[in-house]
Amino acid sequence: MSDDSTLHVPESLTWSAVTGRVRDLVGEAFTEDGPANLIDGEWRAVGTPSEQISPNDGSSLGTMLKLDAATATDAVQRAAQTHRGWAGTELDERRRKVSASLEAIEGARDDLALLLSWEIGKPWKAACSDVDRAISGVRWYVDEIEGMLARDVEGAPAKRVPLEGPVSNIASWNYPMSVQVHAELVQLLAGNGVVAKTPTQGGWMTLTVAHALMAREGLPVTLVSGDGSELSDALIRSPEIGALAFVGGRSNGGKVAAQLADTGKRHMLEQEGLNTWGIWEFSDWESFSEILKKGFEYAKQRCTAYPRFVVQRKLVDQFLATYLPVLDGVRFGHPLAVPQGSSGSTDDLPALDFGPLISASKAQELDDSVAEALRHGAVPLYRGSKDHGTFLPGQDTSAYHAPVSMLAPPGASRLMHEEPFGPVDSIVVVDTEAELLAHMNASNGALVASIASDDTAHAERLAEQVQAFKVGINKLRSRGDKDEAFGGRGESWKGAFVGGEYLVQAVTEGPPGENLYGNFPGYHRYPAT
């Protein structure tokens, strides 16, 4: 651990300073102790206080007010009434109010990014990107929405209309702005009211500020906090809900799918999968080094991270010669720690690959998974140390995890089949193309995958047999922005796909009998990716 006593957090970037500024900006959203819940257009100080902890240093961020099931049910019912009025609002008015919200969010951009750095440990560059992608992405929809609402899924002229009820949004903590707020604003633009739940692990302050700015412009948004087990019936099964958008792990996603089974509700369930790199007949290691470094952004805490490498045996030595130095050069630490004498400007913030994991318990879970794999026979290739991190003097570092890489995790270990959601990689060595494909398809469906090969035509033929929604050839694939489709194959996704026109189709009704693109119980329909 760094013992550099010159590191500190400048006063203007401290949690108290940032929250002081956003309280001044949207004071209506706050109680004396912290954010309220937004119900029927009013901020209400209801719920049971629950302390929120920063993964950066274990410090307290204040309290979240967690609602009970009855209050959440009432909030959904009120949102349904508001939805009906909004659905009848002219498109030009919807565009005007969404655009005004984007202007307000852009005005608060730096403080929203700093909130993300404190709440979920994003380094400055990554935090800014989360906010900026939300703004630029929704602006694209503002320009394109009219055409999207004027055609069916085949591209033929047809009028699309809002759903019968508001869209319920339950998202994970890792991308509060570019995934959750982005999706909500498009849902609103398409004529739907919105109900959103704050993640319990982080992002509640960021979402409070963003939704306060949205509500000020007259957008029908509801924001509630609480445990999923308490609020699930209200947010998933309430008859007033028109659709459910869920982003989270496969276990929770499976529970959500079970709750939806007999409702017939429109849904978009993004679940995890084990995203893989397959390496076959490849030689451009210099370019691959840059790809590997980029892959460690935000500690691989994203749904499109690549934690598994499936490597042709004859290339293992060359792969390791490229890969291990990258692990050794990864920079991590407190995202807001700067040397004494710095100006206090965000320009001085460190250029880290990642900060902490979302919590100390997640870091411990990763340690346990690594230990389990080693007990069952995995070979440790690289085990980084927190001593290489940059931290404040004496700070709590329990949520941090240095990079780890293992060879051949056995089938009995969780890491063989599950996404670790952290900076822990595994490498599998293969001799045949059949083995390559089998190991790339180990999790019964994934969101993304990639193949590194000098023979791109052959790689494209292999890609056709990889069970991932997007497969890159010598490049990373990601969720994408604007008109890029996004979904998953197998168990990584259930329901309608999103991205570009597919997101608008997912939250609107088209002609009777329309078959949306997506993974549904009765059919699977995939767009070009």
UniProtKB/TrEMBL annotation:
Q: Which InterPro entries match?
A: Ald_DH/histidinol_DH (IPR016161), Ald_DH_C (IPR016163), Ald_DH_N (IPR016162), Aldehyde_DH_dom (IPR015590), Aldehyde_DH_Superfamily (IPR050740)
Q: Name one GO molecular function term.
A: oxidoreductase activity, acting on the aldehyde or oxo group of donors, NAD or NADP as acceptor
- Report domain Aldehyde dehydrogenase positions: 50-508
Keyword presence, Repeat = no
Name the Pfam families on file: Aldedh
| Assigned keywords, A-Z | Oxidoreductase
Residue ranges of coiled coil: none
Q: Which SUPFAM superfamilies match?
A: ALDH-like
Is this entry keyworded Oxidoreductase? yes
Kindly provide the name given to this protein in its UniProt entry: Acyl-CoA reductase-like NAD-dependent aldehyde dehydrogenase
**Species, as recorded:** Actinomycetospora succinea
